[in-house]
Amino acid sequence: MCGIHDLTEKDLQPLPYTPAYLDKIKGMRFFDPHVHMSARTTDDYQAMADAGVVALIEPAFWLGQPRTGIDTFRDYFSSLLGWERFRASQFGIKHYCTIGLNSKEANNEALAEAVMEILPQFIYKEGVVGVGEIGFDDQTPLEEKYYRAQLELAKEAGLPVQIHTPHRDKKRGTQRSMDIALEHGLPPHMIIVDHNNEETVKEVLDRGFWAAFTIYPFTKMGNERMVAIVQQYGSERIMVNSAADWGISDPLAVPKTAALMHESGIDLNDIHLVTYSNAVTAFAQSGQINEDDFNIAGNIDQREKFNGSTILRGGQQPRVDKNTTIIR
């Protein structure tokens, strides 16, 4: 009988196992335009890099518990521009963000007013590719008030807008979101309407907006449904994201969906459009995205520090990429 004391360190190492879906996407590169990495671990960053994710966008969002003071927003926005960008770089992933007041916390009027005052300090910074995620949750008057105010902010800054559409009464909320954006003079090509489903996609595309889909287990959209949508509507102005956060979600949703599309016979060019280049095109309108930066991000030296801190804890050994042709 083998007891626990018979185990060696070698026995405790993970088995060398490569998920089957990785073979189907070998050589592909992915851009996840909506993922909340500050809620994820370094293991997630490594798995995303291994699966071909070269860049991502982290929208500012609700942290699961209401914030009570403006300084928590200030620190959160700063972390999206600083530590989280650094942390992604340590795994060869280029990190961008969108900055905004989320719809849920727009219902705290005093706090929302304070957030609106500091947003201009952040939206013009390097790496900010849009105002987001903003829009409706319960479709209240206060949500509409701050959605409109942030549309004006985006228009003034010349930035794309990343719209969060509501989970309840989604069709009406999506229509209102688009109607209001047009009222404020924002052209559809500057608006990414997120969290679409079968009920909303046709109108979003017909009206000329970008249609983003979130592959999120058991709630927003499964990737088999996503395959059917691409088969029906094609790949123009459609993009896929994971919106992985602190909930039950999957940061590998984009590469897994690409693998399923490939297995389902969808053309490789269409897969590339919905899992990479459409998102690049939409958010590059910010003037902040240069695809050459995705390659530079591959030069990894985990000995580097951000404000005196590294991602390495307790004597962990760094990964240093010695294959780069760049010498620093």
TrEMBL record:
InterPro entries for this protein: Metal_Hydrolase (IPR032466), TatD-like (IPR001130), UCP005295 (IPR012022)
Question: At the top level of its lineage, which domain of life is listed?
Answer: Bacteria
Query: Which terms are listed as keywords in the entry?
Result: Hydrolase
Q: Which residues form the signal peptide?
A: none
Q: Does the keyword Cell membrane apply?
A: no
**GO molecular-function term, one example from the UniProt record:** hydrolase activity
**Protein name, entry field:** TatD family hydrolase
Q: What is the lineage of its organism?
A: Bacteria, Pseudomonadati, Bacteroidota, Chitinophagia, Chitinophagales
